[in-house]
Amino acid sequence: MLVDSHCHLDFPELSGRLPQVIESMKDSGVTAAVCIGVSMESMQTVLSLAEKHACLYASVGVHPEHQDCIEPSPDQLISLAQHPKVIGIGETGLDYYWHKDCPEWQRDRFRVHIRAARQCGKPLIVHTRDAAEDTLRLMREEGAGETGGVMHCFTETMEVAASALDLGFYISFSGIVTFKNAKSIKEVAKSIPLDRILIETDAPYLAPVPYRGKTNEPSYVRYVAEEIARLRNLPIEDVAQATTENFCRLFKVTLN
Questions:
Q1: What's the pLDDT score for residue 101?
Q2: Pseudo-torsion of CA 193, 150, 183, 95, nearest 10°?
Q3: Distances in Å between the alpha carbon of 177 and those of 11, 165, 221, 231?
Q4: At 32, is the secondary structure helix, strand, or coil?
Q5: Contact 117, 61 (CB under 8 A)
Q6: Helix or strand or coil: residue 216?
Q7: What is the pLDDT of residues 47-65, one digit of tens each?
Q8: Sign of CA dihedral 102, 108, 111, 116
Q9: pLDDT band, residue 200 (cuts 50/70/90)
Q10: Which domains are present in the chain?
């Protein structure tokens, strides 16, 4: 049993062939996937997907890259999070790669998400790119450790991973961990406690080897699990079981 803890099935690359994508999930032993909210404008689509398909869950949030969009308030996020298929707050965080010149609005938005997560008691789904120091600082300042969460699509150092683990967060690895040149990420995946690891695709992006460069989908999360198993010299069944149990524990989900 495998779980894709982070994907975007509402994006056009996948939404037009969703029945085939879900069938491929089942054929590959992927029991569940989380369709991640990235904007207030798309939230109803994400929630509708989770309502329609028993194997899908949802999160609510506004991606740190998005400008010229509806800004959420804590009350709005908390209200959306009452939906029975919503299991987390995010995707939220900081991204200085695209927005080096105006990060203050990102920091304000991140604080809103952390406060909403604390109030509704649901874990955070955190994106950080070229912003690890500020991301961790805001997490500490806003008490993100009270709710915990996951550092999604982890591409940072072991030191950053250790700081996130100290705050009670999990570390999620995407298809990047299968890339030949991702040596530092492989080292993190090999070294951190197995009971704090999640796996994801971030589909339709970041397809793992052997599908690198193609459209990603939840069924490919198996290749992420296989690489982590190889790095840790474990059977894939052990990694599948551990990451699924970790997912259920963090997001308070019971899978059949």
A1: 67
A2: -160
A3: 23, 19, 11, 10
A4: strand
A5: no
A6: coil
A7: 999 999 999 999 999 999 8
A8: negative
A9: very high
A10: 2-251 (3.20.20.140)
Distance CA 125, CA 151 (A): 6
Cβ atoms of 175 and 210 within 8 Å: the answer is no
Q: What are phi and psi of 99, to 5 degrees?
A: -130, 65
Distance CA 163, CA 136 (A): 8
**pTM flag (> 0.90):** yes
Residue ranges of alpha helices (H) inside 53-182 are 74-80, 104-120, 132-141, 158-166
Query: Looking at residue 103, what is its pLDDT?
Result: 83
The crossing angle, in degrees rounded to 10, of helices 183-191 and 158-166 is: 40
SS3 at position 252: coil
Distance CA 6, CA 250 (A): 14
- Gap between the Cα atoms of 172 and 194, Å rounded: 11
User: What are the Cα distances from residue 60, in Å, to 14, 45, 66, 135, 179?
Assistant: 19, 11, 14, 19, 30
Given this model, what pLDDT does residue 176 score? 98
Q: Which of 72-76, 101-105, 183-187 has the lowest mean pLDDT?
A: 101-105
pLDDT class for 68, splitting at 50, 70, 90? confident
Contact between 30 and 218 (Cβ < 8 Å): yes
Q: What's the CA gap between 125 and 146, in Å, rounded?
A: 14
Give 149-199 pLDDT, tens digit per residue. 999 999 999 999 999 999 999 999 999 999 999 999 999 999 999 999 999
